[in-house]
Amino acid sequence: MAINKTTVLHAQDEKSRKNISGFHATSMFAQYPVIGLLMFIFGVLAFSGLTINLIFQGPLLAVDNLIANTLPAIALKGPPFVKVIMVASYYVGNELLTVLAFLLGFYFIYKRYWQQLVMLFIGLAGSSVFFLSLSKLIDRPRPPTQIWLVLNIPGFPSGHASAVIVFYGLMAYLLVSNIYSNFWKAIIIITTISIIAFVGFSRIFTGGHYLTDVLAGYSIEIAWSGLVYTLVEIYFQKRTRLNVKKR
After folding, report:
1. Torsion angle of C-alpha atoms 163, 124, 43, 146, degrees rounded to 10
2. Stated pTM of the model
3. Which residue among 19, 59, 106, 209 has the highest number of C-beta atoms inside a 10 angstrom radius?
């Protein structure tokens, strides 16, 4: 009796779920590409609106300046542990993220999880390219009220906001896809959103970025994530189907 190819593909997916601990190959974006499309459209429109506001001196600049002059002053008046927490959040979105990315990359190579590796590599590489190119092109100075950690490179869009969306968002997506408990799914989602929000807030609170810098970083990487993860999943899904047909 002929074996239905869809059944074979489903069986392979189930086998992968059992064999891969925590980071099995995902397929939500491939099955529902409209999700990635909506993420891309939303992110591009949001980033475009924030950029136009900046170039043409829109009303959000007044909000930027108000927050930049208020929050760092509050931070300086806070207890010593506030500085420790806020400075630590800088490294959560930079050095810690880099170390975790390298460790995960080596893990994916060791386990031969090529789809996950491609999503991680292209996601972070694209994030870095967007930050370096766009920040240099737009060349917006950082707030003059920076405290504790002072950077002189352009700040629009925020590199920290960009990186945390791509990396922690991808890790949450891979983990949630492999967890059947709704409770733990909720924990992972809440934790990820908290990390992303906290890193962004800390950069504003310490004067490292204007509010719209952070929002721009979130926006452009939501668009990039939706595009990249959808295309990568579609590619690997088609590749799997071709391998099944050859058997």
Report:
1. 30
2. 0.84
3. 209
Q: What is the CA radius of gyration of the chain?
A: 20
Minimal CA–CA distance to 214: which of 76, 47, 98?
47
Burial of 233 (0-12, 13-18, 19+ CB in 10 A): buried
DSSP annotation of 94:
T
Q: What is the chain's length? A: 247
Q: What is the pLDDT of residues 122-156, one digit of tens each?
A: 999 999 998 999 999 999 999 998 888 888 889 99
* 137: its two tokens: 């092109």
Asked if residue 198 lies in contact with residue 89, where contact means CB atoms within 8 angstroms, the answer is yes
Query: Can you point out the beta strands (E) in the chain?
Result: none
What is the distance between the alpha carbons of residues 180 and 182, in angstroms, rounded to a whole number? 6
Tokens of 225: 């994530």
